[in-house]
Amino acid sequence: MLRHIPHIALMRRPELTGGIQAASKSQRPYLFACTFYGITPTVKAPSPNGSFNIPFASAFESLITLSIHFAQSLINGSGSPSFLREVFSQSLLLVDRLVGRLGSSIVVLWDPKKWLSVVLGSIGHEV
Description:
Elements: H1 7-11, H2 19-26, H3 29-37, H4 55-76, H5 81-100, H6 112-124
């Protein structure tokens, strides 16, 4: 799916008209998607920290959070090791592909030292 998203779409939300434009500036991605498609939200998603007006930043920050979660789960031995390894590696692959699409500078909120420490810790951990 990422290959089919134009680069410009990763850098800003679509231009809209009326009340939905206000929602694009104030709502987090899940709620904005529900508003955009006219869907009633079915789950109460936690409010993520970080950016949400720039799709690239939101996707990157969410993938970093997921990869940390999966790495910590591998280290702690919680869950199925083969499943966790697979979703962890897929989350890292998505980070790589997303960053590979970046064509300009962008500000994202993350702690690279923490992320690298957890990722390297999970790689060195025997499961």
